[in-house]
Batch of 4 targets.
Target 1
Amino acid sequence: MSCREAAGMLQACLDGEADEDTARRFATHVEDCRRCGPETAVYQEIKNSLARQEVPDETSLARLREFGTALLASGPREAARFGGAR
C-alpha cells in the first residue's frame, strides 16, 4: 500500500468502516511507514480527544492547522497528498 492509498483510507479505517482486508493492509502500512504512522497517531489522538470532549494536544492541533492551511492554499487534491505524504 502506498502513502497516497493510506491517506485515502485513513478516516474509514479509524472509524472502523473499512473492510477487514483494507483495515489489515492499512494497519500494516502505518506500522511500517515513518510518514503515515505518526500521521495516523495524530488523527487518532484528535478523534479520541473529540470523543472524550476534550481539547486535543497542541501537536495534534498544529498538525490539523497545517492540513487546513494546505487545503486552503492548494485545494483538496493537494491537501490529500500533503496529509498522506508526511
Target 2
Amino acid sequence: MNEFIPLMVIIPLASALLIYLFSGKNNLIKAFAAIVAIVIPIIPLIANYGMHYFGGHPPMVNNLTGVLYHPAIVYSFGSMQQLFLTVFGILVFLVVLIYLNKYKKASGPYLFLIFMGTAAITALMLSQDIFHMYVFFEIAAIAQVGIVAASTIKNRYETALKYMMIGSIGGPILLLGIGFLLAIFGSVNITDIVQGLSNSVISLSSPIFLITCGMLFFGWLYVSGLPPFHTIKSSVYSTAEPHAAALLQAFSVLTMVSILIALFRIFSPLKIFEILLIVFSLLALILSISMALVQTDFKKMIGFLAVGELGFIGLGIGLGTELAITAGLFQALNEIIVTALLFIGFGAIADITKKTDIRQIGGLIGHYPKLGIMMLIGGLAMAGVPPLNGFQSKLMLVQASLDAGFPELSVITILISIATFTAFVKIFHSMFLKSKPNALEISNEKIPKSTMFAVSILLLLCIIFGLFPSIATNAISGLVGGLL
C-alpha cells in the first residue's frame, strides 16, 4: 500500500486540530500554517498511483457467490486525482499565503476551517465509498458555513444560516439515497455496487432503484449548487472574503466532480440519469448567466458566473462519450483556476475601494495597470478565448456535442460563452476603462504582493493548460477509460 495516499488527508486534518489547539500562539500557528500549506501540493506529486485499504483489508472473495467485495474503506489515487489535488493544493497554499499576509494576528479557528475543509475535499476525491464521501462532504459543508460567517462582508450571517437551513434538506435526502443503496446492495463501496448491478441484483426499471437515483441526484444538485440552489451558492461566494471565495469555489467543483463520478458509475445505464444531468446543467448555464448580466455588484456577478460555469462540467459528463467526459473534467480543472483568479483579483479592488457596485468604480487602469491586464486575460480565459485554458475545454465540449449528434448543445455552449464574455466586459469596462466617478477616492494603496503573486501563478496555469492541454487531458483520460 502507498502510505502517502492517506497522508493527503491526515496531514491537513491533523494540522487543523493542532492549529486550533495552539490558536493563542500567533507566530507559531502562522509559521505552522505556512509550512503545511507548502506541503499539501507536494504530497500528490510524490505519491505513487494505487489503492489504499484502511485497516490493511484488501478485497475479498465471497466463497459462496464468488463475488469480489471490499470489507474496508478504499482510497484510489491515479493520474486524475494527482492533477486535481496538486492544483487544489497550490490554491490552498495561495489562499493561506494571502490570509497570513493580510492579517497580523491569524485566527486559529479560521485556519482550522480552511485545513479541515481541505482534508474533507481531498478525502472526497480519493474515496471509493459513497457513505465515506457523504461524511466528508458534511464536514466540508460545515467548514464552508464557518468560513462565510467569519468574513467581514455584510449579510454573512444570513447567508451562512440560509446555507445551513438548505443543507438540512439536501443533506438528509442524499444520505437517505445512500441508505437505499446499502439496503439494495449490502455495501456502500462504489465498485461493489457496480458489480451488484452487473450481476442483476436489482432491475434498472425497479421503482426503488429509480427513487434512489432521484434522491441522490437531488442531493448532488445541492452539493454542486446547480438549480434550484444556484442563488444561495452564489451568495456564499459573494459574502465570503475574496481569498475564501476562491477556496469555496474549489470545494464546490471538487465535491461536484467526486460525487458525480460516483453517480455516473452507478446510474449511467439509466437513460433518464443522463437526460436529467444535461437538462439541469443547461438550466445552470442559462439561469446563472442571465442573473449575472443584470447584476451591478461585481462580486455577485462573478458568483453567478462561477455557478454557471459548473453547467459545462455536467453537460460534458452527461453526454457520456470519452471526449465529452474528458472535456467536462478539463473544464472542472479550469473552473478552479480561472474563478480563483477572478475572485482574488477583483477582491483586491473591493478591499482598496471599499466598493463593489460597478456604477461607483472606474478609472482603475491608470492606477493598477498590471492587475488590470492580468484580470483581462483571466476573464478571457473564463469566456473561452484562445489560446487560454477555457478555450481548450470548451472547444472539446463543442466537438464532443457534434460527435454525439447534438449540434444544438454546441450552439448553446458557444452562445453561453459569448454571454460570459459580455458579462465580463461589463465588469472590466466599468472598473478599469470608464472615467473615474467624482465620488470615488483612490488612495493609490498598493495591492499586496501576496495577492499579485497568487494572481500571477493562477494566470500562469491558465496559459500553461491553454498552450499544452495534453498535460491535463492525458491525466484525465485514464479515469475516463475506466468509467466507460
Target 3
Amino acid sequence: MPSRHSHPGSTPAEDTAVPQPVGEGDESSVAAIHRWRLLAVLLAAQFMANIDTAIVNIAGPAVQSSLGASGGQVGLVISGYVVAYAVLLVARILQGAGAALMVPQVLSGIQLHFTGQQRIKALGYYAVALSGGAVAGQALGGLLIAADLFGTSWRPIFLINVPAGMLLVWAALRSMPGDENEKKADRQQEVDLCGMLFLSMAVLLLIVPLLLGTDEGWPAWTWGCLAASVPMALVFRRSQRRRSALGGRPLIAEEVVREPAVRWSLVAHGITTMTYFALLFVLAVYLQEGLGRGPAYAGVAMVSWVAAFGLAGPLLARVPERYRAAMPALGCVALAVGYTAVWVYLATGHRTGPALFVLLGIGGLGLGVSSNSLIGQMTFALPDRYAADLSGVISTNAQLCGALGVAALGGGYLLLADGGTVESAANGMEAVLGASAVLSVLSAVAAQQGSRSRATTGTPVVLP
C-alpha cells in the first residue's frame, strides 16, 4: 500500500494515485472483502507490535535478576525499544525498528481505504488489535517466564515474533497492494537520516540520565545531558524546517502538526500514552520486586486494563454523532478517575488483589475511549493525501512520549522505592498514580481544545 509522505508540492494528479476510501453503500462486495482482508493483515501487525511492548515489561524484573542489571538499566532497555520504534535506531532496538516500519501503515491504511462510519468501525477493530496484543503479551509473557523452559528464563519471549512474523509476511504479500502508482523519484527520495540522528540524540540525552541518574548518584554528566537535550531538540526542529524548505521530506511533516485540531490532539494522546507506558513498567516492577509476586501474577494484573481498552473501540462506533466531539475529553477524565481510584486503594493500606485489577479496568476503558476518539479526530481533520504523514506523526509522538513516561515516571518510582521495602514500593506506586491522574486531567484540557478547533475550522481542513 502507498506509504509516501505527501507534501505541499504534491499535485492533484499525484493525489489521484491514492486508493479511494470506502464509505457506506458505495463499494462492490469484492472490493469490500479485499479492504477488510487488508485491514486484518494490518491489524495483525499491530497485534504483534503490542505483544512486544507488553511482554518486555513483564520480563523486566527477570532480566534484571538474570543479568544483574539495575532498575534504571532495565528501564533503558524498554525505552530503547520505543525510541527505536519512533526514530529507527539500531540494537533491542532492531525489533523496534521493524515495528516502526510496520505499524504506521495501519493508521494510514485505515484513512486511505475507509471513510465515514466505516472508518469509525475500522478504528474500533484497531482498538481491539491493540488490546488483544497487550493482553496476549501480558499473559503469555508471564506464563513463559514462570515456565522457565529448558532453564532459559525470559529468553523465549523474544522468539515469539519469528513464526508469527513469517506468517504475517506471507499474508502481507498476498493481501497488500504494491506501490505501482508511485512516482519513481518519489519512491527513491532520501529518508531524513539527519532528522533521525538529531531526534534520537535529543531523546537519548533526556531519557538516559533520567533512568540512570539514581543508580549513578546524579553525577555531572547526567545534568550535562539533560541540559544538552534542549539545544539538540532545537537543532532537530531547525533541520526539519530547512529540509522542508529545500523540497525534501522531513521526518515530521510540519504542515500536519500546524493544524490546531491535530496539534492539540497529539498533545492529549502523547500525555495519555506517557502515563500508560509508565504504568506498564512500574506495575510490573511493583508487583514482582516490591511485593514479591511472580511474573505470571504480574502478567494477569494488567489484563483487565488492556481488555477494557479493547471494549472502547466497538462502543465508540455506537455513540451518536452529536456526542462524538465530547468523547476525547471524556475518555481522558475517565482515565484520571481510574488512576485516582487505584491511588485511593493503595493509600488506604491495600497492596494488591482482585479489587486492584477491577479498578485498573476503569483506567483501561478511559484510555481506550480517549485514544480511539483522539486518533479518529485527527484522521477526520485532514484530507486523505496527508494519511501517511499523519500516521507517522501519531506513531512517533506516541512512542517518544511513552519512552519519556518510562524514563520520568518510571525513574521517579525507582527513586522512591529504593528502600527495598513493601512500604517504599507502595509509596512509589502512589506517587506515579497521583502524577498520572494530574497529567490525565491536563490531557482532557488539550483534548477539549482539539475538539473545539475541529468544530471551528470544519472537516476536513484543507492545508496549503
Target 4
Amino acid sequence: MTSGRLHLSTRSLIAAVAVALAGGVAWLVRNKRPQPPAPAPAPPRIGYSRNGSAPTPMAGAGAENGR
C-alpha cells in the first residue's frame, strides 16, 4: 500500500462530477410525485335558490326585451 496522496486527473474529476450530477437528476425525476388533476368547476345553478338570493343574470339574457 502506498501512503502517498491519491492523484486524480482533471478529466476524472469532471467525469465523477458529471456522473454524480446525472445520478442526482435521475433520482429527482424518479421520485417526483404526479400532480393531482385540477378540481372541476362548480356546475351552474338551475332552478330556485334555497337561501332566498336572486340568481345572477347571464350575459345576453333578456336581450329580446330591450325596446
